[in-house]
Queue: 3 jobs
Job 1
Amino acid sequence: MLRPHADAPLPRLSACVITRNEAANIADCLRSLSFCDEIIVVDSHSNDDTRAIAESLGARVIVRTFTGYRSQKQAAVDAARHDWVLCLDADERIGETLRASIDEARAKAFGDAAGFRMARCTEYYGRPIRRGNGYPDRKLRLFDRRRARWGGREIHEKVVADGPVESLRGDIEHHAYRHVGDQWARRDRYATLMARALHHEGRRAYWWNLCLSPLLRFLRGYVLRFGFLDGWRGWALACVGADNVYRKYMRLWLLDRGLPIDDEPASAGVKAQGVDADVPAVDPAPARGH
């Protein structure tokens, strides 16, 4: 529980964002972070106006070659001037209720918490989706970097905290997909990265992963978590989620048998967006969330 600290100064707060070719999103993202004391953008060699827009809005921009989502986000945290950090992806915004919750926690010097979780609400074709597999999708994004850091895999990375973690009211507003082509391309890329990571960990794919896991994913989101109440959007998201599970396990099944899953040779020993040193590379991806 948050407890006021007598005479404690208001903690200073750094916002951290990673980018690659996010000119369409970065301005709205950074404006939602204007209450922070500094904003750091770690950019993966964008060839659009991302860096110029970020600098025009007062962000400190650092150019860094993309080595993986986890590594890139931790680099942004390490570059911060303040110990309390708030991490967003370029296609995310801090909603008004969430900002009020952060201000309230900050006024109490964040109490004894090492970090704070917050729900993430994805906007899908003009409507926020608060059912199905994608909500509340709680993320630990506000934390004391002395007691927490980015961990897990390079894809599907997460913050690992050494101390109590509390929850805040309000949502991160997630504007995930520019269009359906962007959605399919990104999901396909993540499926490849996840398959490579699982293969490197020694995981195997079996027939039930290909047949049952996608079905269970669909039923979980569309039926058990009431995705059907979102109409065609709920149906579409449930189908995409199931297809993503199928693609991941299909690629893992192929890797188990030494077969290629993309244009890179299966034995390529280069670093793939930081998934691991002997996992083959794919084309650089937008440095945003998933």
Job 2
Amino acid sequence: MDLAQLIAERRPVLLDGAMGTQLAALGLDMGGQNNLSHPDEVAAIHQAYAQAGCSILTTNTLTMNRIFVDTHRVGVDVRQVNLAGAGLARSAVPDGQYVMGDMSSTGQMLEPYGDYKTEAFHDTFKEQAEALAEGGVDGFIVETVLDLREALCAVRACKAVGSLPVIASLSFQTVDHGGRTAMGNTAQETAIALADAGADAVGVNCGDLDPVQTAAIVAIMSQAVSVPILAQPNAGRPKLIAGKTVFDMTPERFADGIAECVRAGASLVGGCCGTSPAHIHRVAEVCFPVA
């Protein structure tokens, strides 16, 4: 079965958890540059998630698009870092598991709020998607995006590369007023627009919501569109402690929240910031028990 068929079946599927905060826990800077500078550490995190019970690994390539790399002076070759990311994730998956190419924001804004036109965003996402496809991913996940227009650019760019499935997920700041992103997009508006753009699944990840609040966004989306819904919340709402952002939700409480997301209509679930292989393993035990 290919990944597109798995997603379309709508049976619950478990994705992995956070990469960035796991790298930070090892004392490394967060980011895809570690695919080249610390490949063993990245591979070990992938392997831990693969062993925790998930069916889909995501590459460590979140912001490795040309606009982000250039404007943030990351100092890596875009094609090389994405190929490396795909290869590291692929090396960790046993038979029956899949790899999705992870894509996210450029870190810049579209006109009229910023200096970039949609064509520039489309081109930078298409370049990244082409490298990930060359690296052998089974599909793409566009996630942790704050602006619906940027997410639409990414989805359309991925679809322009070929027939691989695309999951598109935005981050929400509140569940009030129909759920809102930082740019004011509602959950219903977001789900409909992404599905119309060709996303094979839509959803919610990261942001300022805990897992139970995430379930409320899932419920709105599942009523708005017919495509499968993704939920990948953080390990609780972020807290600032001694100048550091901390996510302190236990694996047990996180898994209970994911169960709420499944009941609300999510068929694709996993974790974002602050989650670990322990969180994903607990979700596997609670939501995907072995008969």
Job 3
Amino acid sequence: MRSWRNEPRTTHAFRGTSEPMSSLRPWVMAARPPTLWAAVAPVLIGSALAHRAGVFRWLPFVAILVAAVLIQIGVNYANDYSDAVRGADTEHRIGPQRAVASGLITPRQMRIGIAAVFGAAVLIGGYLASIAGPVIVVIGVLSIVAALGYTGGPVPYGYRGYGEVFVFVFFGLVATAGTRYVYDQTVGLDAWIGGIVMGCLATAILVANNIRDLATDRAAGKRTLAVKLGRTRTRMLFAVVVLAAFVLVAVAAVAGWVPPWSALALLALPLAIPVVRIVASAVEGPPLIAALKGTARLQLAVGVLFAIGALV
């Protein structure tokens, strides 16, 4: 691992080029912007359902949205740090460049960054707890502990194949139902269903990521679910969780479990077809990276359309 001790902190070569790196750019890169839609989409659904119930307020909406994005960034920073110090990120990794492993950010700097991001989320969470009660404190604490334990701590569950469970619960159920809860401390069936839909698509993002990293994770001893299942069955898992999201939207809309116009989310189905095809056939890095980004956009599209349907 390179060190910044003898290098200017304001520039750094990026991906082997002579392009200078600003001091901010490695942090933006480590935040993994394409994945942040996984934090935004559930907030849109939960807030739209609150608006339908007549309890929506703008200030809590902005606070929830910012806190959710900060927690997602914190998760990505923590993964960047933990994978580097555990030796899981090597020069053979085919995904985007990692900041700590490549020396763009030192481990100490990243620890400070993680603390700062989660600290900001905690401050916003204090405001949300003041209007929604101690349940929000519990949600916030559990979310941060789960985020840090994903690839960090003595028993990183992401290295043991349980990362998909974490993502489904916290970036699906908790994010959507928790958002709805803030507004009037109630959570209806529609919010739970929206949470399951979001959980399926957020899980698909992680599955796509782990398929891309399957070979290097196996070599590093990182026992993700993709490593345990193998490429063929993991590809099937990806298709199943994506399809399940759309099936649930259709069934719930017809059954009246969610607002009927939430079925607008089905219009995003054409976006799902190419990513499922890529994951089903690609073994090289660039197509799988495109599939991961495409899955994140798919989740955002479903979230936006579902939310619009709830507002109709």
